[in-house]
Amino acid sequence: MKAWTVLCVLITVAASQAGVDLEWQVVGESFEVGDTVEVELYAVADNAGDNEPFASLSVIMVWDPDVLALQDVNDNGPYAWAFSGFPSDYDGLNDTLDDGDAFYQAWPEFDVIPVATPEGLLITTMQFEALDAADASELVIVPEFGYFAETYVGDEEYAGWNIVDDMGSALVQVNGGGPGLLGDVNCDGAVDFDDINPFVVALGGSAAYRQAYPGCHWLNADINGDGTVSFDDVNPFIALLGG
Q1: Which of 61, 116, 174, 181 could be a cystine partner for 43, CB 3.0 to 4.6 Å?
Q2: pTM of the model as a whole
Q3: Pairing, β 20-26 against β 101-107
Q4: CATH number of the domain bearing residue 102
Q5: What pLDDT does 139 receive?
């Protein structure tokens, strides 16, 4: 049999195998600002009645960082992964987990072959903090990012073969929240000179501000009301202090 015929046969066999869908399931109906939001990640065999073993799993996930802040993972599925988490600074991902995108990986123990089922295999549970109100904030799986990062489910039998199929999304509803007293950037109930340093921190971005002042709303520093905090807010802030 010629080499190209063998190659075609191998590709046909691998392509005919069932793929794996990646799905989210939100634990709960809606949340309040400050709540922990848990979203389960499932690997689902997309051929009814057939299980699908796999070798490893990688997921590129994207969300709105003004609504949700990624905190950790809870490996509450049936497998104790050798690694489950976010490898550091992977192709521009994971340099920080505050920017609304992350690269997650799960690697099984050496002697374990995980199996996606038609009912769904729970991989892990992503844990977020609800930061701000949103009727439907979307958590999305995307196929690739940068030069090398890709959403990937490695076939257990054919090394290097990506058997990921559909990549799901989820909607998270967060109630309440929103800015409080305009100019009260340290959230002490008053607008005064104690708000100057927090205002300077807010100019550095929402992620830095949330870390320094948890529970406060970044848009308390949006004095001109344009939906963001920038140097355009400096003069209005000074005027507010003087008023």
Answers
A1: 116
A2: 0.74
A3: unpaired
A4: 2.60.40.680
A5: 97
